[in-house]
Amino acid sequence: MWHLQPRNDILLKMDAANRYIYKDNRKLRLGYTTGTCAAAAVKAAAQMLLGGSPVEQTELVTPKGIPLKLRVEHIQMEPGRVRCAVRKDAGDDHDVTDGAYIYADVIKITGGMEIDGGEGVGRVTKAGLDQPVGSAAINSAPRRMMLQAMQETADDYGYEGGLRAVISVPEGVSLAKRTLNEKLGIVGGISILGTSGIVEPMSESALVDTIRAQISLYAAQGCRDLIVTPGSYGETFVARELGLDLEHTVKCSNFIGDTIDMGYEFGLKSLLLVGHLGKLAKLGSGIMNTHSRYADGRMETLAACVLSAGGSAGLGCRILACNTTDEAVDVLRQNRMLEQVMGKLTERIAAALRQRACDGMRTEAVIFSNRHGVLGMTDGAAALMALHRKKENADGNRSHL
């Protein structure tokens, strides 16, 4: 059975033997999330607790509708308690939790179905995340999967009492060091995640979810003015060259448009976007996902800015022939057109940002190059930088952007 996904570069095949996608002309094997592993371990442990016999394989259907048969390992059966594990398989995705064992300890209780986190599962310490402060970092979708697994198992065995499941990941503390958990306010281990239950290699949804989690966290803390950078180059430039605090910055990767949408959703007052010319030039043509698979347009945009700034067609052609934006900057500087072209570019970027934000919040941008430093900024960018520096100073050099 074949299923076409919403994006036309993905084809998902599901049959008894294979679960994979074709993406960018590559065949990639699907995996399953920590949430799926936890739910499978909970189901198997509940079956063993109520049935009294070992279960070495368990079946479940993910929220995405994909049926899975997962191997159950490290079984420990004791009177009134069962512990077992399911090993995480991320498929062809590069996931820090790939290969980790997700354990479930299940016991009988008087009534109701309860879920908690144990060793290696983080605890939420800041408001604004998927779970309330003090709770185990087990997100809503995995919780629903686990509760459903326990209830269905209880029904199958005619058991009318309650069950309590504790999820643990012995490697969780060390794995969490390779995630954003600490920055998000999740301490003591990893999060149990997975909206669809399936890990899609090269998936963009996980990155977008991380951006959303950060913005939600800052909004819950009362932060209404954020700095956004596409990546590490931007972060470094913000700290070293602009002298701003990184504590409440958000890395948006290529998802500039989505980040603006989420800022509007969470009621932010302003976003200051700081990025390399190679990324932000695309905004001058309204390109809001700057990954090269969707669009390029860097040189075309710069060439259009040359013409609108009064430059010659010949100079525009020279820009079109450049391989990198740094090379284009060199050409513009040699022809004494850099300032004028950057002025036109920032006008176009400002218009594109305003259009995406629908005037619901203030959006400004700073464009830089590692070789040339600040190349341009929208009209209100300096004022936003001053706002962030004022907040730094008012809080003893700790930013509350």
Order of the strands making up the biggest sheet: 8-9-10-13-11
- What coarse outline follows from CA principal-axis ratios? elongated
Structural category: alpha+beta
What distance separates the N and C termini?
Answer: 49 Å
Q: What Rg is obtained from the alpha carbons, in whole angstroms? A: 25 Å
Oligomeric state of shown chains: single chain
β-strand number? 20
Specify the helix fraction band: 25-40%
Strand content: 15-25%
Overall mean confidence score, pLDDT:
88
Largest sheet entry? 5 strands, mixed
Number of helices: 13
Q: Uncertain regions: pLDDT < 50 for 5+ in a row? A: 1-17, 396-401
Tell me the count of domains: 2
Fold and architecture overview:
With 401 residues, the chain is an alpha+beta fold. It folds into two domains: 31-199, CbiD-like (2-Layer Sandwich); 205-394, no CATH class. 36% of the residues lie in helices and 24% in strands. The protein contains 13 helices and 20 strands. It has helices spanning 34-51, 140-156, 172-176, 181-184, 205-220, 232-240, 256-265, 277-280, 298-308, 313-320, 325-334, 338-357, 381-394, and strands spanning 2-4, 10-14, 19-23, 26-29, 31-32, 57-61, 67-71, 73-78, 81-87, 101-109, 113-117, 123-124, 162-168, 186-187, 198-199, 225-229, 249-251, 270-276, 362-369, 373-377. It has a five-stranded mixed beta sheet, with helices on one face. A five-stranded mixed beta sheet has the order 17-16-18-19-20, sandwiched between helices. It is elongated and about 85 Å long. The two termini are 49 Å apart.
